[in-house]
User: Fold this.
Amino acid sequence: MSSKLEQLKASLTYLQKVLIAFSGGVDSTFLLKVARDILGKDNVLAVIAESPTYPSDEVKWAEDLAKKLDVNYKIIQTDEFSNEKFISNPKERCYYCKSELFSKLKQIAKENNIPHVLDGSNYDDKSDYRPGTQAKCELEVKSPLLDLEFTKKDIRGASKELNLPTWDKPSYACLASRIPYGTQITPEILKRVEEGEKFLLSLGFKQLRVRHHGDIVRIEVDQDSLPDVVQDEVRDEIAKKFEQLGYTYVTFDLKGYRTGSMNETL
Assistant:
């Protein structure tokens, strides 16, 4: 692990000045922290993207964290909903979303004389279907954590050593990933999903997803939490909340939380 970290420091030193796509998640926070320590404040710019596909609480968390890390940061608005291809939600949806984001980041980098745009993709991401990788390649966005084969476990361990508050933060993904391919994405659906996940978090669940299937909601929680959801009081409270959100049927996935479960249909 120490060897990988030294390689990362050397790689960042070589790049000299970078813009980092910053979500406040485990990976991008670790990358931002190391870049800030190695390159200094004036040579690092964190950009936080705000849109209906990303919860407002997560944007606020990222902004507060950027301040805590003492980095220069900028919040931008992305406009995926101007693209009908994104709204129609094909299996390449992530490509259109990332194209919108990375195009804006490249423009900001150009305006600020920053030669390199980085993201926090890690080596484990290679095991899932990620069409956004094509957009990253087309726009020459670099992924040093992936290139140096940092796994999520590596990053969490190193983040803990660096006393980063994200070391045990649950994994996250944009809200559009909660909607089955082929189902049109609307701000209304995204808001329902966001509110549902926020409610579950308030009950103490941590790693979770709310998957939207029309009038059915499929809730994923980590395996250890599955016994908790069947307790009468908790189960009834969850059912009531999701019925209020407009779902007729409230279900729990017995396989529990797993990343990219919507890709299982591909």
Residues 1-162 form a domain with the Rossmann fold fold (CATH 3.40.50.620). DSSP finds eleven helices and seven strands in the chain. The longest strand covers residues 44-50.
